[in-house]
Design goal:
- By secondary structure, the protein is mainly β.
- The chain is built from 6 helices and 37 strands.
- The chain has one domain: TonB-dependent receptor, beta-barrel domain (Maltoporin, Chain A, Beta Barrel).
- The protein has a 22-stranded antiparallel barrel.
- It is globular and about 80 Å long.
- It comes from Pseudoduganella umbonata.
- This is Iron complex outermembrane receptor protein.
- It is found in: Cell outer membrane.
Length: about 750
């Protein structure tokens, strides 16, 4: 008899209740004032060329527009829409880019935990799978409620609330409550039994100066191989109240996500078992046989597959915002936020038996986050000066543990587990973060020349406790009182702008299973005196230009990355041994980015982006694994393709729209000695649809078809899922995931 038990959550039926409530509200609501008649699709004029390249910025800054988000498959992570931009490499094993174990993004060779992410100014941490200080944007808000995404490839603005933005920042902005009342409905069906329902109700601007929206999302999808689903329910709500010149707002977001894992692959396992190989479920007997050393069908070791793996995440993100406009040219924004996360990751492990007769148990890693913080910023225009200043403070408690649960056979593990028979690791961390910044922007030569100069001061202190197991405890601090940033833009002509910037940034230490505290206490004590926070110095130099139907940018960049920490895996991921942390010194990055957006004709647009990035380890000391000396000097940075290219052709006329794109990702490495190259690949995607205008009860209606991996390419998408190794010449290290095959999705949407 199993000792697994379920922890109940009363909010489980939340989405269904909200859907019912919204449907009732839509029918009972008082009609809004009659809108202007929708133009007939046959006579509708086309929208002007959209601005992708942000003018007036001293850094390389680009936008992903609302149209890009709308034409992506509903439910697609807004991170995935960034892969068209220069410098950005995005990988995922699912067609939505939302499966978090596989979601990896890098910019200019900087990995995900070296980037900064914010949602309406609220820090999301580094959005890693075992996030210790935030949450993934796909859980923070439904993709339909994202209005735009802004990417700063070199370094984020000084006011970015992040202690990890060494190599760039991504700012997500939501669509706030709309001035016009209405209901937005969308339904998607597709490959692998995908079903996604989205409902949003806007009150419109009421006579009291109040406006609000609530939305609910329910998504169900099977994996494209193996057994299990990728399910999510979300609820988002925002209210804003006008107070004369000021605005007071509040928000509440809730998410429940349950995703079944794909088995990590190696070159060797793919040669023997193929790209479509996955975990054993629902074949329990084969999993038991493998745990007893009886292998069949090409399997030759314990780590080729497990019975099943799963991740569960529940998140609450809420807060309030006050926008003060005390005088012309003066604005003061303050946001207070709180975030609570409970998560658990399950693996059926053959390394720890449940009993003498059942050689498999469930290994559960539980994660918890409790964050409270405030972000405040002031903008003051004084003559030809624009002064900005702000502060960010946060207190975060993060805990994680590893326990084992007995099973008698295959169990439903799509819920939180309790009553383990063994707990082997339990750590708890309290992180206090304080950041302050000030900057002055001066406009000269009739606004043709703009100079920016400022600095930020950052301090992040981690107090770590080890309750169970042999992992490290102690205190680490990352602090810099003066991190300067400067730049300028010069308008050579009204259409052509030169820009350049220089900045220094610091990354705080990681509090959790993936940082310095993942070592043994002895290793931590030995490494602590020389453990310095990672820092980067970044320089950008480029030009942006617009000429009628053409806009584009070209940028050269250089980044020097010091105190680069290598977390080297010492065993397979399911065993979870303490890691080896090594400071390999410096990473040197040099590169070129170019992008062109060309309105070929009234109906046609062609977008292209190209990146050449050379990121290499430099001035690195030797380190040892056993008796073997490891020298990474001159080696390419792991998971940093040297060449990226994206091309996208889009069409829009008389309500019809279509888009086809192709992305090239160059060769990558998952070993620091570069002895196991991951092949380059091309992937193509397509979307097409028709906006019907008014149809039946809808003011606006549309139908859309999306096809991912149009030519059904087999390739390795994500690498480094189980970390990176120093060397793997035989290709036996399972740390890669195959990309999803061709998948199609049909979406119907409308507004009432």
């Amino acid at each position: 008899m199993s000792v697994l038990s379920r922890t109940q959550f009363p909010l489980k039926p939340l989405t269904l209740l909200v859907l019912q409530a919204l449907a009732g509200a839509a029918l009972a609501a008082e009609p809004a004032p009659a809108p202007e008649p929708a133009p007939d699709p046959a006579t509708r004029t086309e929208a002007p060329i959209e601005t992708v390249f942000v003018q007036g910025q001293v850094r390389q800054v680009q936008n992903v527009t609302r149209k890009d988000l709308q034409q992506a498959t509903p439910g697609t992570s807004p991170l995935k829409t960034l892969e068209k931009l220069p410098g950005v490499s995005f990988q995922s094993a699912d067609p939505f880019g939302a499966y978090e174990w596989s979601t990896h993004i890098s910019i200019r060779g900087f990995g995900q935990n070296q980037l900064g992410f914010t949602l309406d100014g609220i820090p999301l941490g580094d959005m890693s799978y075992r996030n210790h200080n935030g949450l993934h944007v796909s859980r923070a808000v439904s993709s339909e409620n994202i209005g735009s995404v802004t990417v700063s490839q070199g370094a984020g603005a000084l006011g970015t609330a992040s202690t990890s933005n060494l190599g760039g920042a991504v700012a997500f902005t939501t669509r706030g409550p709309q001035d016009t009342a209405g209901v937005q409905l969308a339904q998607t069906f597709g490959t692998e039994n995908t079903s996604r329902t989205f409902v949003r109700y806007d009150t419109g601007l009421l006579p009291t100066g109040t406006k609000a929206y609530v939305s609910a999302t329910r998504q169900r999808a099977d994996k494209w191989k193996g057994d299990g689903g990728q399910d999510q329910d979300q609820f988002n709500a925002t209210v804003e109240q006008e107070l004369g010149r000021h605005v007071l707002g509040a928000f509440f977001n809730y998410s429940e996500r349950t995703e079944t894992d794909y088995q990590d692959l190696s070159f060797d396992s793919v040669r023997r078992l193929g790209y479509d190989w996955d975990n054993y479920a629902p074949d329990w007997q084969r999993a038991v046989n493998a745990a007893n050393g009886i292998y069949t069908g090409g399997v030759n070791n314990l780590d080729d597959a497990y019975y099943l793996g799963r991740g569960i995440r529940h998140d609450w993100l809420a807060g309030a915002k006050l926008e003060l406009n005390p005088a012309d040219g003066v604005r003061w924004d303050t946001t207070v936020y709180g975030h609570r996360n409970r998560g658990e990751s399950h693996w059926y492990t053959p390394y720890t038996p449940s009993s003498a007769t059942v050689p498999v148990s469930v290994r559960a890693q539980e994660y918890g986050i409790e964050r409270v913080g405030v972000v405040s910023g002031l903008t003051w225009e004084i003559g030809n000066h624009t002064v900005t200043a702000g502060a960010w403070g946060e207190r975060s408690t993060h805990s994680w543990s590893r326990a084992f649960h007995a099973v008698a056979g295959p169990e439903d593990t799509s819920h939180f587990l309790d009553n383990p028979f063994s707990t082997v690791i339990a750590q708890r961390f309290t992180t206090k973060t304080r950041q302050f910044h000030v900057q002055d922007s001066i406009a000269l030569l009739q606004d043709r020349l703009k100079l920016n100069a400022g600095f930020k001061s950052t301090k992040a202190t981690i107090d770590g406790d080890n309750d169970i197991g042999g992992r490290a405890a102690g205190t680490l601090e990352a602090s810099k009182k003066f991190l300067p940033q400067a730049g300028l833009t010069f308008a050579v002509t009204p259409q052509t702008e030169l820009f350049t910037s220089w900045s220094k940034n610091l990354k705080a230490h990681i509090a959790g299973a993936d940082g310095p505290f993942s070592q043994t206490q002895a290793a931590f004590d030995l490494s602590k005196p020389g453990l310095k926070p990672e820092t980067s110095t970044t320089v950008d130099l480029g030009v942006r230009a617009k000429n009628g139907s053409v806009q584009g940018s070209v940028a050269l960049y250089a980044a020097d990355f010091k105190n680069r920490q290598l977390n080297v895996a010492t065993c397979t991921g399911i065993v979870g041994c303490p890691t080896t942390l090594t400071n390999i010194g410096k990473v040197e990055t040099r590169g070129l980015e170019a992008a062109l957006d060309w309105k070929l004709a009234r109906e046609w647009k062609w977008f292209n982006s190209f990146t050449y990035n050379r990121s290499e380890y430099k001035d690195a000391p030797l380190y040892y694994e056993g008796a073997a000396a490891i020298d990474v000097n001159g080696k390419r940075v792991v998971d940093a393709p040297r060449v990226l290219f994206n091309t996208e052709l889009s069409f829009e006329h008389a309500g019809w729209f279509a888009r086809v794109d192709a992305k090239y990702t160059g060769k990558r490495y998952y070993t620091y000695l570069n002895d196991s190259p991951v092949p380059s690949y091309w992937i193509a995607n397509a979307a097409a649809g028709y906006r019907l205008g008014a149809a039946g009860p809808f003011k606006e209606a549309a139908i859309q078809l999306n096809v991912a991996n149009l030519f059904d390419k087999k390739y390795f998408a994500t690498i480094g899922t189980n970390g990176f190794a120093s060397t793997d010449p035989s290709g036996a290290f399972a740390t890669m995931l195959a990309g999803s095959p061709r998948a199609a999705f049909l979406s119907l949407s409308g507004k009432l």
